[in-house]
Specification:
Layout: H1 3-15, H2 28-34, E1 43-47, H3 68-72, E2 81-86, H4 89-100, E3 105-109, H5 121-128, E4 134-140, H6 151-157, H7 184-199
Parallel strand pairs: 1-2
Antiparallel strand pairs: 2-4, 3-4
The structure holds S-adenosylmethionine (SAM).
Amino acid sequence: MVSKYFRLAARRAASRRLSNVVLLRGEALYLIATLLPAGMARTVHVYFPDPWPKSRHHRRRLLDPRTVDLVLALLDPQEGRLFFATDHLEYGEAVAETLALHPAVEMERVDGAWPEGPRTNYEAKFEREGRPIIRLAARLRGGRPASLLHPAGRDDLLVGPAGGRRASPGVLQAASGGSGSEDPRTQRIDQESSASRTSS
Ligand SMILES: C[S@@+](CC[C@H](N)C(=O)[O-])C[C@H]1O[C@@H](n2cnc3c(N)ncnc32)[C@H](O)[C@@H]1O
C-alpha cells in the first residue's frame, strides 16, 4: 500500500472511531512470513496486485506457485476464503491455474461482478472502462490446514547448494551433503545465483 493510501485509511478509521482495525504497511510476503499468525483470516482479499509481467520477476508475485502456500496458510481452515481479482489476464489465468492445481484448494471463477459491486477503486475504474477482469474465489478443501505444498512450489524447497556454494537466500537446504551439480533443479538455482551476482 503506498503511503498516501495508508494515511488515508488511517484517517478514515480514526474519524469513524473503528476499534477493530489494524493497518500494517510493508512488503506483503514479508509480513505474512514473519508477523501474521497462520489460520488467522476468515477472508483474504487480493485485488489488482502488481502483475510483475516479466517471467524472471514472476517469483515476486503475491500469488505464484512459490508463494501461494504462504498466503493460503493465513486462512482459517474451516471458514477461510481467498478472493482475488485482476485486469492482467495472463496473471489472472496463472493464478487460476495455480489455485486449481493446488491439492488443498477448491477454487471457482466468479462470473461477472461481485454481488455487492466493485470492491476497490481500481475495480470501479476498470469496470467503467469496460476492461475484462478475472475474479476468483477459493477455500481450503475439506477444511484442511494449508500444510500441503503446491507441487510446483515444492521444487524451490527441495534443492541443496551446488558445489559447496551458498544457496540463494530463502531456499531451504533440505538435501543433505550432495554436491548436487548433476541435479537440474540445483543447476537452475546455481545459474540464478550467478546471474544475480553478475547483475548486482
Ligand atoms: C494496482 S494497486 C491496487 C490497489 C487496490 N488493491 C485496488 O484494487 O484499488 C496495487 C497496490 O499493491 C501494492 N503492492 C504491490 N506489491 C506489494 C507488495 N509486495 N506488498 C505490499 N503491497 C504491494 C502497491 O503499493 C499498490 O498500492
